[in-house]
Design brief:
Length: 333
């Protein structure tokens, strides 16, 4: 069997910065309230008239990742695209990226696992490479949240959290067994599906229903924040511990922990639980908010660009989100 390693990374976020003070002008909130609860100071939102969509942003991030991998688009064998905000209800964003990059007719798979979408996508890509089926796989996480948020006081507890953006990596075949992706670990618990969800439109409540029920707000995101927080800190910890134990490692071996950027308070709780120093944790939610499937590849790429990731480092990635779904990845850089 082969192993897989990340050979190129890239990310893209819209130019427009939306601060907490900007939000206070359109809803009853303020900078202190948002920062105390989430750690977020600002986020990027796509502006009206922009060409950007989830697929377009994903393609922009992918171009950077492919170039940094030293490859051409023709070298990519497969695409895995993670998002909860696809351009269309169907088809998915993966095929759109294939077209936007003018790639050969390679396969494209969409993953709908929301905040843990990138972790799931990496696990799928890792298995395709380990079995020898593909050599270079493009893995993308991209989200266009801002156009689907309730930007009023009624929706503020959710609207202040989310930002737009995309991140991408190229995962390639690797002959060094002790480097690259060491293991991935995936879990779900569907009994809590509605605690963080958008339940409409769905196939039972489609266009005629929406036309007749203009006051129905169930097509906006809903979140039971306290329940999500309580489950997140438990599942984050379990996923990290599972990855470490699978590789006979301890928290002391972690050079950098990169969590899904859901809430800075969740990250800080997990950091304390594993007794990690600030140098062992990378957070950028302060600048970008929660970009769901895009948050880990954006953070991973940014950390690498800043020199926080070096050859031989042990990188632990973990995510928790809607589904509930969660998972972890252990990487030897």
């Amino acid at each position: 069997m082969y192993s897989s390693k990340i050979t190129g990374m890239g990310f893209y976020v819209p130019d427009t910065i939306v601060t907490n003070d900007d939000l206070s002008k359109i809803m009853d909130t303020n900078d202190m309230w948002i920062q105390e609860r989430t750690g977020i100071k600002e986020r990027r939102w796509i502006q009206k008239g922009s060409e950007d969509t989830s697929a377009v942003m994903g393609a922009k991030a992918a171009r950077i990742a492919i170039e940094r991998a030293g490859l051409e688009k023709e070298d990519i064998d497969f695409i895995v695209f993670a998002t909860l905000s696809p351009d269309y209800y169907f088809p998915g964003g993966g095929v759109m990226v294939q077209d936007l990059l003018d790639m050969p007719t390679v396969g494209a798979l969409d993953v709908r696992n929301q905040c843990s979408g990138f972790v799931y996508s990496m696990s799928v890509a890792d298995q395709f490479i380990k079995t020898g089926m593909y050599k270079n796989i493009l893995v993308i996480g991209a989200e266009y949240h801002s156009n689907g948020l309730d930007k009023t006081t009624r929706g503020r507890t959710v609207a202040v959290l989310f930002g737009d953006g995309a991140g991408a990596v190229v995962l390639s075949r690797n002959k060094q067994k002790d480097k690259g992706v060491l293991s991935t670990h995936l879990h779900s618990q569907g009994k809590f599906a509605k605690e963080l969800s958008v339940t409409k439109p769905n196939i039972r409540n489609w266009i005629p229903y929406l036309m007749e029920n203009k006051d129905d707000l169930s097509y906006y995101p809903y979140m039971d924040g306290q329940k999500v927080f309580k489950h997140a800190i438990v599942r984050f910890s379990e996923a990290i511990q599972e990855g470490l134990q699978a590789n006979n490692l301890t928290a002391d071996d972690i050079d950098l922990f990169i969590p899904h950027q859901a809430n800075l308070r969740i990250t800080q709780f997990v950091q304390r639980r594993f007794k990690l120093s600030d140098d062992q944790v990378y957070s950028n939610i302060q600048k970008y908010g929660n970009t769901t499937a895009a948050s880990i590849p954006i953070a991973l790429c940014e950390a690498w660009e800043k020199g926080r990731i070096k050859d031989g480092d042990l990188i632990v990635i973990a995510a928790f989100g809607s589904g509930f779904t969660w998972g972890s990845i252990v990487i030897r850089w």
